[in-house]
Structure formats: C-alpha cells, structure tokens
Amino acid sequence: MRILFYAPTGKPDPWLAGLRAQLPAAEIEAWQPGAPPADAAVLWSPPQQLFDEQPQLKAVFNLGAGMDALLKLQLPKDALLVRLEDAGMAVQMAEYVCHYLVRHVREFDQLENRWVFRKPLDRAEFPVGVMGLGQLGSRVAQAVLQFDFPVVGWSRTPRDLPGVKTFAGEAGLPEFLSQTRVLVCLLPLTPDTRDILNRDTLGRLKPGGYLINVARGAHLVEEDLLALLDSGHMAGAALDVFRTEPLPAGHPFWNHPKVTVTPHISGRTLREESIRQIAGKIRALERGEPVAGVVERERGY
Length: 301
Ligand code: NAP
Ligand code: GLV
Hints:
This protein is an alpha/beta fold. The protein is built from 9 helices and 12 strands. Helix 1 (13-22) crosses helix 9 and helix 4 (89-105) crosses helix 5 (135-145).
C-alpha cells in the first residue's frame, strides 16, 4: 500500500516516522506535486491540486474531526472519507468547556486582585445546553454533569445520554434553547448548521445567556452576538473559533469586556493518538473490515 501525508504546518517527519512504525509494510511519504499515485492519504487542509493529481485514492483520512474544509474541495469520488474520532480531543474539549463554564458562573474572572464576597452559586440557575452529542459533545455533557449543573442536549437524531435531557431535530430546537442558559456548540459545520447561532436562537436562551463556541466560526453570526451582549440578554461568550482565522486585528471580539477569545485550541489533534487510530483503520480496511468515522458526504459530517 502507498500512503501520502500532507499537513500545511508543522514538520512532517515525526508524522511520517510514526505512520511508518505503525504500518511497516506500507510505502509512506510526504505529498509533493507530481507524486506517484497512492492508495490512501492522511492529511489536513490540502490544496485542491493533491486531489486533482490523485483521483484514484481509495481512502482519505482527515487529521481532524471537522470535515467542512475538506468537503469544500473536489474529492476523489469513490474515496472513503474518514475523520478523527475523539483521538484525545474529547477530554481537551471537556476541560475547555468546564473551565469557561466554571469561570463564568463562579465569577472568577471578575475577582482578580479584589477582596469581594459573592453570593453562593445556585447551579439550577445555570442549565447547560450542548448542541451536538457526538464524540465531543457527549463527553462534554458528561463532564459538565460531574459538576452538578443541569444538562440538556440537542442532536439531529434522537440520542439517549444518562442524566441529560435530550432534544432532536429542528422541532426540538426551541425547547432545547429555552431550557438553556450556558450554550455549548459542538456541531459539525454543514449547510444545516451554518449561522445557527444567531439573533433568533441566542435570543431564545434564558436571560443572562453565555455562549461557548468550540465548533466552527461560521456557526455564529458575530454581529448578532454583539447586539445581544450590548442589549444585556447575553452575559458573555468564550469563543475558540471565528469566521476568519486568525481573528483579524481590530475585530470587536478582541477587546470586548464580555468576550474571551482563544486561538482555535480547544481540541488539538494529538499526533500519537491520531496515528494509532488511523493506522488501526488502515489495517482494518486491508483486512476487508468496516471502519467507524466514515463521513457521509450528503450529510456533511
Ligand atoms: P460528531 O461525532 O460527528 O458529532 C456531531 C453531533 O452533531 C452529532 O450528535 C450530530 O447528531 C449533531 N448534528 C449534526 N448535524 C446536526 C443538525 N443539523 N442538527 C442537530 N444536530 C446535529 O462530531 P464530533 O467529533 O463531536 O465533532 C464536532 C465538531 O467539533 C467537528 O465537526 C468540528 O467542527 C468541531 N471541532 C472543533 C475543534 C476545535 O479545536 N475548536 C476540535 C475538534 C472538533 P447525530 O448524533 O444525530 O448524528
Ligand atoms: C479541529 O478543529 C478539528 O476539526 O479537529
């Protein structure tokens, strides 16, 4: 088997060494324009040229959970598209969300260098709503439950998660939102979910709403959030992803007193875990076995 590797940033050598160690019988190299035809590709954010030159690829392994960037390209039509499933990202997401949730509701960010007593917290006043109950959202919901916050969840198809009141589909969205004060977005970016965090949906949150967006920037209509922060309906937001990344200098989020910005780091791709997962799937495919994490192109995730 011949495998191509591509990532736009970072050094390819540790990835190549790791993949070669896991798949000693395979011929594995970094993609260069004009590379001979391969069977599979392991990649993140490749140029269209890679696919134009490699229409015979049988499998494409994305080095991330989100497939939105890849699905914008013209992909080899018969290739199996496989995304990362957790691979060490879910625990990072759980840490990130719990950090900003607790920091907000306990008012830790308002306490710096001031000796001010705060009234005790009533967790029942801060129900957390998780949009997207997949690999990452379900782990986040479990982690938040450990801190005894009420948790509601929303997915495309009905899901059953212990301790979580779940809603599904468009019909379930208004009720899910009306029961939520701290909203966490962990949806994939698809035609159905683009701009889903807008004046109408955020306006349905309980007063004093707080948004934690760790999915994709294009889920959020940024000016709608700003308007709701200004009106006081929303109390704040922790944002890890943006419509334009890096977030441009001078963007109102940078210095907004109610907004915390992080540079798309809530769930980083971890090299060893990712290599192990992808190599395991390549071995399974070679044995003719099915693998999990295959993306449905029509559905967009
Ligand atoms: P996943 O396992 O595919 O889960 C996606 C969840 O979203 C599922 O529960 C799915 O519903 C739900 N969903 C999809 N479309 C929906 C719709 N139209 N309405 C309601 N629910 C919908 O994905 P994941 O691995 O958890 O990753 C989620 C996203 O996180 C990725 O796509 C990526 O964009 C983002 N991400 C961000 C970072 C970062 O560093 N910021 C890192 C990793 C991932 P069903 O359960 O019914 O299928
Ligand atoms: C990162 O944003 C990912 O989709 O894995």
